[in-house]
C-alpha cells in the first residue's frame, strides 16, 4: 500500500510539473441494504453496504492510470457477494502507456477475445464479478490488424488466483469494400492456464484455442467461431477427478439479414465441457470467481418481474449427478426477429407498430453416458434431454402523443431437474401489458400488469408495477407480485416501494420491500440470492 | 492488507490538489458494425454537438428513450445535433443490435462497446446514461430516462448552443 501511495505521489509531482494537460476524474457507487429478515440468518438485522470509488488520472496523451477502492462497510458485504470481499482495500489498479500503435498495460486488465468463449475479464457490480487479470498486456493495433498478448494471475476477491494465465489474440480484416460495406475478418486466440503449485497426473497446462471468421455486408452477416480446449480433469464435488479427463469444444454460428424496418438474427451454439477457471477448484463456486471465459445463456434477456422466474442458465459443464442425470454441455439455437409496421399501414396505424419475436431451444448433448465408469462420448449433432424452450412475442404501439403500450407474451418450458439439478419441469405462459402515459408538465405515469400461468412448480403468479414521474428527476414506484396459485399457507408475495432522484450524473434511490429469492440474472449470468425483507439504497455519481 | 487511514488521506490529497472533473471524452477504442475498432477521437469531430446514449437491447427505458428520439430525429439533426447510440450489449446480446436497430428503423449512428471499455472510461455505472458533448468536450450528463425527458434534453442543448455561440 505504502509503495502504491509513493508511486502516486511521484506521479502527482511529475504531473504537476508537466506542461501537458492533467486530468483526474472518477465515480462513486454505493449499494446498501438493511436486512430486516433474511433467508440467510447471518444477515438478519445487519446494515451492509458495497462501496466503489474509482479514480482515473490522465497525464497528457500517453499515460493513464486508474485505481478502484472498494469498501464492504458496517456489517460487511451484501448477501449475494463472495465472503472474500470484506473491509476496505484497493481492488484494481492499472497503468497504461500508449505510443503510436502500441499500448502497454500493467496491473488489472479487462479484455475479451472473440465472443468470450475462451477469455473475457470484466466487472459487473450487480453480480459482484470482477475477474480482471493482475498482470501485463501489450496491444498492437492498426486499422486492419490487432494483436494482443497478456499474462498474469486472476483477481479473486482481495487476492489473486494461484493459477497463471497466458493469452494472445489476433484479429485481421482481410478485405474491406467501402462502397458496399462488405468486409471479411479473421480471428485467432490462445489462452493457457496452469496451476504451478499443484501436481496433477495429467498435463497441468490447459490450452484453449479459438478460430473465427466474420463476414459483413450491407444487408447480411455471418460469423463462425470454433473453440477447442485441451484435456483437463473434471471437477466433481469440489475436487479434481484425475480419472475423469476430457477435452472441451464449442461451435458458435450466427447469421442475420436486415433492411430498413426488418431484422432477423439466428444463433446456433454447441458447447461441450467448456467451463474454464484460473483455479480449477473454483468450479461450481457460488460467486463466479476465477472464471476465465464468458458462457452466457443465449435466450431473450427479460426485464419484467414475472418473466424473470425460471430463466435459463447456460449449461457448459460436465455433471454426473446420478445415473439418470448426466450432462456434458448444451446444443441449441436462438432466433430474433424485429419488424416495424409502417405508419399508415393497417397494423401500423398513425404512428407505426413495432414487433419483436424471439424463439430459443436448448438440449443436453446426445451420446453415450456411463455413470459407473464416469465417462461419456458425444456425437456432434445429437440431442438428449430438453433443457429449455421459449417463444416470445412483443408488440409496441404508440397510440397518440400521450399514450403508448407494450404487450408481451412468453411461452416457456424449463427443465428444473436438468438445469438446476433439483426436481421438476415447468411449463409457463406469461403475459405483460406495460403502459406509458404522459400527463403533461413533465409528469408521466407507467403501469404494468403481469400474469404467469403455471400448472407445475409454484403455480400461478400475478403482478403489477406502477411508476409515477413527478418530473424528469424524481420517480416514485411500487411493485407487487403474488404467488396466488401456490398451495402453501399464506400465499408468498414480494413487493417494493421506492423513490429515486437523479440530477445530471448523480442518482440516489431507496426502497423498502420483500425480495424474492432465486436466481438474479444479469447479462445471461445468474447468481442465487436468498429471500429477504429490508430497506435498500444506492448512490451513484461521477465527478 | 491495506491501511485504510492511509488510503483515505491519500484520496484527500488527490482531491484537493488535482483538476477535478471529467471534462473531455477520453480516447479509447470502440467498434462499429463493420470495423473492429475505431478511436473515439476520430468519431467526435471538433465543434459538432453529440448525444452519446449508452443503451442495451435488454434495457427497456433505454429503448423507450431512443424510440422517442427516433420519432423526431429530424428535429435533432435540424439543430445540428448528432445522436450516437452506444450499445453496451456483450456477446450474449450483441448480435441482436443490428436486427433491432433495423427493425426499429433507427437512423442514427450505432457503435458497439462490447466489453465496456468506453463505458468504464466514462465511469458509467448504470444505463440509460447520456453524455452531451461538443466535439470531445463534455457539456452535460444524465442518468435514467422518464417519458418526455428527450424533449427536455433537446431543449437544454439548444439553450446551451444559443448561450455559447
Give me the secondary-structure topology:
The complex is a heterodimer of chains A (543) and B (165).
Chain A: H1 2-17, E1 22-38, E2 46-59, E3 63-74, E4 87-99, E5 102-109, E6 111-113, E7 119-121, E8 123-124, E9 129-130, E10 133-141, E11 145-156, E12 159-177, E13 182-194, E14 206-216, E15 220-236, E16 239-259, E17 262-272, E18 319-322, E19 325-327, E20 329-341, E21 353-370, E22 375-398, E23 403-414, H2 416-420, E24 426-440, E25 443-454, E26 461-469, E27 474-482, E28 493-503, E29 506-515, E30 518-522, E31 525-529, E32 532-542
Antiparallel strand pairs in A: 1-2, 1-32, 2-3, 3-4, 4-5, 5-10, 6-7, 8-9, 10-11, 11-12, 12-13, 13-14, 14-15, 15-16, 16-17, 17-20, 18-19, 20-21, 21-22, 22-23, 23-24, 24-25, 25-26, 26-27, 27-28, 28-29, 29-32, 30-31
Chain B: H1 4-17, E1 29-30, E2 38-39, H2 40-43, E3 49-55, H3 60-71, H4 73-78, E4 81-87, H5 97-103, E5 109-112, H6 117-121, E6 129-134, E7 137-143, H7 149-164
Parallel strand pairs in B: 3-4, 4-5
Antiparallel strand pairs in B: 1-2, 3-6, 6-7
Amino acid at each position: 500500500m505504502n509503495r502504491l501511495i509513493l508511486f502516486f505521489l511521484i506521479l502527482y509531482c511529475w504531473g504537476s510539473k508537466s506542461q501537458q494537460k492533467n486530468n483526474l476524474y472518477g465515480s462513486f457507487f454505493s449499494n446498501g441494504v438493511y436486512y430486516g429478515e433474511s433467508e440467510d440468518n447471518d444477515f438478519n438485522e445487519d446494515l451492509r453496504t458495497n462501496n466503489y470509488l474509482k479514480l482515473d488520472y490522465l497525464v497528457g496523451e500517453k499515460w493513464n492510470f486508474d485505481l478502484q477502492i472498494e469498501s464492504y462497510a458496517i456489517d460487511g458485504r451484501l448477501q449475494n457477494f463472495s465472503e472474500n470481499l470484506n473491509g476496505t482495500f484497493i481492488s484494481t489498479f492499472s497503468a497504461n502507456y500508449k505510443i503510436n500503435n502500441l499500448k502497454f498495460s500493467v496491473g488489472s486488465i479487462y479484455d475479451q477475445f472473440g465472443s468470450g468463449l475462451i477469455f473475457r475479464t470484466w466487472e459487473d457490480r450487480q453480480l459482484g464479478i470482477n475477474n480482471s487479470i493482475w498482470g501485463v498486456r501489450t496491444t498492437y493495433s492498426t486499422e486492419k490488424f490487432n494483436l494482443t498478448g497478456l499474462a498474469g494471475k486472476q483477481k479473486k476477491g482481495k487476492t489473486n488466483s494461484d493459477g497463471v494465465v497466458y493469452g494472445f489474440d489476433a484479429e485481421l480484416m482481410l478485405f474491406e469494400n467501402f462502397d458496399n460495406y462488405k468486409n471479411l475478418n479473421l480471428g485467432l486466440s490462445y489462452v493457457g492456464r496452469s496451476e504451478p503449485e499443484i501436481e496433477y497426473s495429467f498435463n497441468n497446462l490447459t490450452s484453449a484455442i479459438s478460430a473465427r471468421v466474420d463476414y459483413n455486408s450491407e444487408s447480411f452477416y455471418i460469423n463462425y467461431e470454433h473453440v477447442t480446449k485441451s484435456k483437463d480433469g473434471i471437477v466433481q464435488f469440489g475436487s479434481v477427478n484425475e480419472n475423469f479427463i476430457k477435452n472441451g469444444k464449442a461451435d458458435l454460428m450466427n447469421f442475420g439479414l436486415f433492411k430498413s424496418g426488418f431484422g432477423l438474427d439466428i444463433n446456433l451454439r454447441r458447447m461441450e465441457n467448456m467451463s474454464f477457471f484460473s483455479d480449477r477448484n473454483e468450479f461450481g463456486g457460488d460467486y463466479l470467481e476465477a472464471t476465465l471465459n464468458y458462457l452466457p445463456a443465449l435466450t431473450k434477456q427479460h426485464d419484467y418481474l414475472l418473466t424473470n422466474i425460471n430463466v435459463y442458465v447456460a449449461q457448459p459443464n460436465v455433471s454426473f449427478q446420478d445415473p439418470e442425470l448426466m450432462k456434458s454441455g448444451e446444443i441449441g439455437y436462438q432466433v430474433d426477429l424485429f419488424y416495424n409496421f409502417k405508419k399508415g399501414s393497417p397494423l401500423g396505424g398513425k404512428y407505426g407498430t413495432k414487433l419483436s419475436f424471439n424463439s430459443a431451444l436448448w438440449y443436453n448433448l446426445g451420446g453415450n453416458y456411463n455413470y459407473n465408469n464416469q465417462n461419456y462420448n458425444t456425437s456432434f449433432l445429437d440431442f438428449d434431454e430438453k433443457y429449455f424452450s421459449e417463444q416470445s412475442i412483443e408488440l409496441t404501439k404508440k397510440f397518440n402523443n400521450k399514450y403508448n403500450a407494450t404487450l408481451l407474451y412468453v411461452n416457456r418450458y424449463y427443465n428444473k431437474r436438468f438445469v438446476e439439478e433439483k426436481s421438476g419441469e415447468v411449463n409457463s405462459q406469461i403475459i405483460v401489458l406495460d403502459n406509458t402515459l404522459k400527463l403533461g408538465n413533465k409528469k408521466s405515469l407507467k403501469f404494468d400488469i403481469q400474469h404467469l400461468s403455471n400448472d407445475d412448480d409454484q403455480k400461478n403468479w400475478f403482478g403489477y408495477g406502477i411508476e409515477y414521474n413527478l418530473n424528469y428527476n424524481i420517480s416514485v414506484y411500487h411493485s407487487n407480485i403474488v404467488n396466488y396459485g401456490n398451495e402453501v399457507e399464506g400465499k408468498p408475495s414480494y413487493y417494493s416501494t421506492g423513490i429515486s432522484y437523479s440530477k445530471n450524473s448523480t442518482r440516489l434511490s431507496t426502497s423498502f420491500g420483500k425480495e424474492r429469492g432465486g436466481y438474479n440474472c444479469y447479462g445471461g449470468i445468474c447468481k442465487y440470492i436468498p429471500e429477504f425483507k429490508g430497506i435498500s439504497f444506492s448512490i451513484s455519481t461521477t465527478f | 492488507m491495506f491501511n485504510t487511514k492511509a488510503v483515505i488521506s491519500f484520496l484527500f490529497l488527490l482531491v484537493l490538489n488535482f483538476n477535478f472533473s471529467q471534462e473531455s471524452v477520453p480516447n479509447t477504442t470502440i467498434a462499429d458494425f463493420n470495423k473492429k475498432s475505431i478511436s473515439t477521437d476520430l468519431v467526435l469531430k471538433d465543434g459538432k454537438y453529440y448525444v452519446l446514449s449508452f443503451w442495451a437491447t435488454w434495457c427497456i427505458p433505454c429503448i423507450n428513450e431512443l424510440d422517442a428520439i427516433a420519432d423526431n430525429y429530424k428535429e435533432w439533426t435540424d439543430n445540428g445535433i448528432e445522436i450516437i447510440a452506444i450499445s453496451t450489449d456483450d456477446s450474449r446480446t450483441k448480435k441482436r443490435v443490428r436486427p433491432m436497430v433495423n427493425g426499429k428503423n433507427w437512423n442514427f449512428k450505432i457503435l458497439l462497446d462490447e466489453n465496456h471499455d468506453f463505458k468504464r472510461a466514462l465511469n458509467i455505472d448504470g444505463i440509460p446514461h447520456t453524455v452531451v458533448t461538443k466535439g470531445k468536450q463534455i457539456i452535460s450528463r444524465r442518468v435514467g430516462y422518464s417519458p418526455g425527458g428527450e424533449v427536455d434534453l433537446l431543449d437544454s442543448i439548444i439553450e446551451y448552443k444559443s448561450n455559447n455561440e
